[in-house]
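Thread title: Can someone regenerate the structure for this chain?

I was given the following input by a collaborator and told the matching structure tokens would be attached. They weren't. Posting the sequence so someone can regenerate them.
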Amino acid sequence: MARTGRNETCPCGSGKKFKHCCASKKNTWSSRIILLIIAGTVLLAVLAAVSYSRQGAGSGRVWSVEHGHYHDASGREAPR
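Best answer:
Regenerated them for you:
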């Protein structure tokens, strides 16, 4: 079967040129897949940032507002 040219009438019967009708529909799946990959990557980056920021919360370190740094459970200054 011969390929339809971009400026020919679309074979679906819409009366439009192929480039304004079904030609654009062929690229929707690839663009959706790319969009999903980008969204997944952004989501993973946000989750990693949240996980990284919460690491200090469960490590026995306490923020001292008075001193402006973390202390460990014994009250000594914790390394950064």
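The mean pLDDT is 79.
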